[in-house]
Amino acid sequence: MLKPQQTPFRDIVSLDGLWKFALGSSGNETAAPWTAPLATNLECPVPASYNDIFVDRQIHDHVGWVYYQREAIVPSGWSHQQYLVRVEAATHHGRIYINDHLVAEHVGGYTPFEADITGLVSAGNSFRLTIAVSNVLTHETIPPGRIEVEEFTGKITQVYQHDFFNYAGLARSVSLYSVPKQHIQDIRVVTNVDGTTGLIDYLVTVSNSTTERIKINVVDEDGRNVIEASGTRGTATIDSARLWHPGDAYLYQFQVSIVGSDDSIIDTYSVATGVRTVKVSGNQFLINDKPFYFTGFGKHEDSNVRGKGYDPAYMVHDFQLMNWMGANSFRTSHYPYAEEVMDFADRHGIVVIDETPAVGLSYSIGAGQSSEDSQQTFTPEGINNKTREAHKQAVRELIARDKNHASVVMWSIANEPASHEAGAREYFAPLVDLAHELDSTRPVCFTNYGDATYELDRISDMFNVLCLNRYFGWYTQTGEIEEAEAALEKELLGWEGKYDKPIVMTEYGADTIAGLHSVLGLPWSEEFQVELLDMYHRVFDRVESVVGEQVWNFADFQAAVGVSRVDGNKKGIFTRDRKPKAAAQTLRNRWRHT
């Protein structure tokens, strides 16, 4: 599913803006009441999560369906085209209605879906577009959760294991776009390097079998055509290719055209392509056959008012802050980010660990807190075969969407699952096989959490890179830097001794209140955050297999309401409105001199 693109043969109409908005009930209701015009005076912006937009606790806490509605017009010039409605994300279950018709349904809150409406609305005519979104999570969804009913009031609440607020709605763009009736459906590019020659293996899928020619042009950043090829499958070679490097992005445009029998162009599509290689060799992570050391963050799509709504201003500012600090990478914790973010990373040479929404696959963690009395995770009544099918679909959709991004160097298929519990291997083995089957060119990882030590973990041998989330000095050895340092080094040396694999510390840090200071360096103070990070870095520098450090988190973010989190998770190096804490200078001094 290619992202809509404006070309001489394709058009896009943005449907972003204010939509009518209404709450549904909490059940899995039918569409019948919602195909008619919504009787509401509420308007909600798209893209944005709806939860923090309104000054209404009922909307903020709503569990179940909500409805967005607006009128749209198919341009009259599209009469000979095929046209579709595309939703970039509906968290977590979306339905598209055209007038009275349900035309598409999708489960999964962070990847796009669309509906072909060519046969329902004639070019030049208007139509009523309704998008229904449900935020309900169960033990068979990715991410998982459960519904509870309050004892005295009967209020329905959503319980989930992940430690970030369950923002919902249309957090990314909605568009109406056209393609020629005979068009390019998909393009896959895989790059390699042979000496100074760049190789682009490609596979093109068209909408129907055709006798027309497929023409390939590779164009450099100066607009020069450096290679021509043809056919739906092949290899394009670039002599003296300029490679895509971290911090030094270079992108070729891989242009595909359908050419008619009269040599006229029927359709064209261009994929920005960075020529680079990614490999794991022993305990090294190699980009273009050179050892690469990850510096950066786990992040969140999270900001005031918008929630998880895509915001280009925040995106550009966040990348500016990462550049200021010398960060070269981030992980899309804990879900695929907006594709505009991936495009931006491609253009600016930022390396990405791309993660599925599979967070919360451990009943021993509840919203970031460990529990010793929890039930087993992998059971027929818990995380089961149906959950794994949803997980497989999340892997398929992530790789299908992001496979051509040069910035993406590794797939993370889960965050902090119960990898030490019985059933973990049986659950994950098919997922690892699927990821490698879909993309044999990138390493596959998952992020391991503290209870699943190198002695207890059951699945890490199946993965290419060890990604560890550890909170020595915070959740354990709290405030005791010397004890935490010894425990951390023992743990890392244990992993190094057991596996000859690269280790990336994908989470480490401490909750820190901006402006809270302590001459004793006590927990929650800015001084403690600095001391803790310095300790981790000393240990990293002593362990040869450590090839990366990604601090948790880039910025403070909203979490589930509860007594363990006061207005969110405060582990950010920046506040939620992107003001630096003292640790920002500490990291900047380290990373800009690494």
TrEMBL record:
<dbReference type="InterPro" id="IPR006104">
    <property type="entry name" value="Glyco_hydro_2_N"/>
</dbReference>
<dbReference type="GO" id="GO:0019391">
    <property type="term" value="P:glucuronoside catabolic process"/>
</dbReference>
<dbReference type="InterPro" id="IPR023230">
    <property type="entry name" value="Glyco_hydro_2_CS"/>
</dbReference>
<comment type="similarity">
    <text>Belongs to the glycosyl hydrolase 2 family.</text>
</comment>
<dbReference type="GO" id="GO:0030246">
    <property type="term" value="F:carbohydrate binding"/>
</dbReference>
<dbReference type="InterPro" id="IPR006103">
    <property type="entry name" value="Glyco_hydro_2_cat"/>
</dbReference>
<feature type="domain" description="Glycosyl hydrolases family 2 sugar binding">
    <location>
        <begin position="14"/>
        <end position="180"/>
    </location>
</feature>
<dbReference type="InterPro" id="IPR013783">
    <property type="entry name" value="Ig-like_fold"/>
</dbReference>
<dbReference type="InterPro" id="IPR006102">
    <property type="entry name" value="Ig-like_GH2"/>
</dbReference>
<feature type="domain" description="Glycoside hydrolase family 2 catalytic">
    <location>
        <begin position="278"/>
        <end position="592"/>
    </location>
</feature>
<dbReference type="InterPro" id="IPR017853">
    <property type="entry name" value="GH"/>
</dbReference>
<dbReference type="InterPro" id="IPR008979">
    <property type="entry name" value="Galactose-bd-like_sf"/>
</dbReference>
<feature type="domain" description="Glycoside hydrolase family 2 immunoglobulin-like beta-sandwich">
    <location>
        <begin position="183"/>
        <end position="276"/>
    </location>
</feature>
<keyword id="KW-0326">Glycosidase</keyword>
<dbReference type="Pfam" id="PF02837">
    <property type="entry name" value="Glyco_hydro_2_N"/>
</dbReference>
<dbReference type="Pfam" id="PF00703">
    <property type="entry name" value="Glyco_hydro_2"/>
</dbReference>
<dbReference type="InterPro" id="IPR023232">
    <property type="entry name" value="Glyco_hydro_2_AS"/>
</dbReference>
<dbReference type="InterPro" id="IPR006101">
    <property type="entry name" value="Glyco_hydro_2"/>
</dbReference>
<dbReference type="GO" id="GO:0005975">
    <property type="term" value="P:carbohydrate metabolic process"/>
</dbReference>
<dbReference type="Pfam" id="PF02836">
    <property type="entry name" value="Glyco_hydro_2_C"/>
</dbReference>
<keyword id="KW-0378">Hydrolase</keyword>
<dbReference type="InterPro" id="IPR036156">
    <property type="entry name" value="Beta-gal/glucu_dom_sf"/>
</dbReference>
<dbReference type="GO" id="GO:0004566">
    <property type="term" value="F:beta-glucuronidase activity"/>
</dbReference>
<protein>
    <recommendedName>
        <fullName>Beta-glucuronidase</fullName>
        <ecNumber>3.2.1.31</ecNumber>
    </recommendedName>
</protein>
